[in-house]
Amino acid sequence: MPDLTTPLGRARAHAYALVAEHAGINLVWRNLHRLSDRAYRSSQPTPGQLRRRIRRLGLRTVVCLRGFSEDSPLSLLEREVCAKEGCALEVYKMHSRKIPSGAIIRGARDLLERIEYPALFHCKSGADRVGLFSTLYLHFEEGVPLAETRQLRFFPYGHVSGAKAGLLDHFFACYQAEHAAHGTPFLEWVDRMDPQELRDSFRPHPLWSLVFDKVLQRE
């Protein structure tokens, strides 16, 4: 755990945040987008970016979907910024390469219901996990039909349906097929669907998987 009380410890923490945690890429590509008058989505912000966004957007809550360890340098810096700015920080771990369980979907809904807005949702690259969470936000909080949320797209978010993260597209496509055939409500379906069965029926493209999962090391 880095010591943020010393100049050397802080320098090391910021260096790690910029290099090892992909935050450096976000100096160029922030992937910040407005979802509504009270919610935004983005990639992992640097501590400086986060501070400016809290002030400029009047954020009351930041939701980190990465679930990294509490002693991670970037986690410590993010908690520090939120605490100093009087902004709540919620950490809710989601996955981009797993079918979300009914418990994960319901937990996300409950989180969205209890947090204070305006809010910023972020993951690492701002493409996959935050795309899933933003879809749920628009559906549960804004009443947008799932088929119309359009949060899992290559442009402008960088989500690639042909890579392993395409499991998320497959998840929603399977629900839409079920809903079209039987009119099944979303939460009823997620409680009884079989995540492993859905996973086994999905085939990512080998090239996209190589680029995004191995080379770019998407989480």
| CATH evolutionary superfamily | Protein tyrosine phosphatase superfamily
Question: Helical amount among residues, as a percent range?
Answer: 40-55%
Q: Identify the CATH class.
A: Alpha Beta
Shape estimate: globular
CATH structural fold name: Protein-Tyrosine Phosphatase, Chain A
Termini Cα gap: 22 Å
Low-confidence stretches: none
Give the strand order of the largest sheet, numbering strands 1, 2, ... along the chain.
Answer: 1-2-5-3-4
How much of the sequence is in beta strands? 5-15%
| Radius of gyration computed on alpha carbons | 18 Å
User: Biggest sheet, in brief?
Assistant: 5 strands, mixed
The helix/strand order is HEEHEHEHEHHHHH
Number of helices: 9
Corresponding CATH architecture:
Alpha-Beta Complex
**SSE class:** alpha/beta
Summary, kept brief:
This protein is an alpha/beta fold and 219 residues long. It has helices at residues 7-19, 47-57, 73-85, 102-114, 129-140, 167-182, 186-192, 195-200, 206-215; strands at residues 33-36, 39-42, 61-64, 88-91, 119-122.
